[in-house]
Structure formats: C-alpha cells, structure tokens
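Exercise: predict the fold of this chain.
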Amino acid sequence: MKTKEAIQEEEEHIRKLVRELPDEKRLLFFQQAEKELKDPDTYAALNALFVAGLHHFYLGQWVRGAINLFIFVAGMVFLFAGHVAVGIGLLIAISLVELKALFAAQIVVQDYNNAVMERIYREVIKD
C-alpha cells in the first residue's frame, strides 16, 4: 500500500497537470470528476454503520465487497442457527479486518480518487 505522503504527492501532481490544461479541457475534467469522485466520509460511514462490505461496493470493488458481505451474512447465519461461537468469530474477524479500512478511509478514498482523476485527465488530453 502507498504511503500517505506518496498519495498526497500524486494528488498534487495531478492537480498541477489539470491547472495547465486549456480552459475548455479543464472544465471538461472538472465536470467529469464531479460525477465520479467519491467522498471519504460516505466510505467511512458505510464501513462504520454496517460491516458488510458496502464501503467496497461504493468504490466499485465488487469482489472484495462480495467477500465481505458473504462473511458477514455467514456470521449472522451461524449466529442465529445456534453456532454462536462460529458466528461471533466470523463477525469479529470481519470487523477487525475492516477496522483498518475505517481508520484509513481518507487515504483509501484519496488514492481511489487519484486513480479516477488520472484516468479522466488522460481521457481529456486524448480528445
């Protein structure tokens, strides 16, 4: 995983490139970016409120989201099917794994947004 400093430097580099675009291309960049960039607070809220992988779906990480959702649902099924220890174990395990994502929400989303901005920039300069 990239460091916070590397992600911030990457963002600044992309922003510098965008500032150098002609006005019409810069406008196009910002219009597209407004539609596609994600909010770190929404990501964190989805993670904190419901540890079922919804925050991964929010960033388009379908496989990881599906795995989280499966583990969460399996934990709930085991819990209510009388296998309380297994259910609680799965729920604790997925919670601990996702706790890291909760505390790193700003950086995770910033890194995602950097990739989106870079893709949009390349599309804009190609046109």
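Check your answer against the key: The chain has one domain: 4-126.
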